[in-house]
Design goal:
Elements (H helix, E strand, L loop, with lengths): L3 H18 L27 E11 L2 E9 L6 E6 L3 E8 L3 E8 L8 E8 L5 E8 L7
Length: 140
């Protein structure tokens, strides 16, 4: 069995010489730019939007809502608020989304449980989304 280099070294050397004869080694193409990554001072390609696509009634006076941002100039900050029928007990945040969980005291959509998400991007643009939802509460 022949060692690897003694067998492949002549071919590797020939490839190197050919590369130099043709103007040098090939350069790799640059990585594709991340469309969400902007340099300081650049404007966003799309307007900032906020959304609350889902609020889940977890039963027994508990709920969970998921929100997110799109467009604008990342990174984003998220701020949740609620009306007097809803408490926000837990907030989790990622790069483009956020989730809250808490308790709610009204089950009627006539007097809605309501949450509001305000998203701010890195250049100060803001977008807001609001969601009403039903909640199953325990009657004492």
């Amino acid at each position: 069995m022949k060692p690897f280099l003694s067998v492949h070294l002549p071919a590797m050397f020939a490839a190197s010489l050919l590369s130099l004869a043709c103007g040098g080694p090939m350069e790799e193409a640059p990585d594709e730019a991340n469309p969400q990554t902007l340099q300081e001072g650049e404007q966003a390609l799309a307007a900032l939007t906020a959304g609350i696509p889902l609020c889940t009634n977890l039963g027994n006076g508990f709920y969970g809502c998921t929100g997110g941002a799109n467009g604008g100039t990342p990174p984003y900050t998220f701020a949740w608020t609620s009306n007097s029928y809803v408490t926000i007990d837990h907030v989790a945040t990622g790069p483009t989304g956020t989730r809250i969980e808490g308790t709610c005291t009204r089950s009627s959509i006539g007097s809605p449980n309501q949450v509001t998400l305000t998203v701010t991007d890195s250049v100060g643009a803001q977008a807001t989304a609001q969601r009403n939802f039903k909640c199953t509460t325990i009657v004492p």
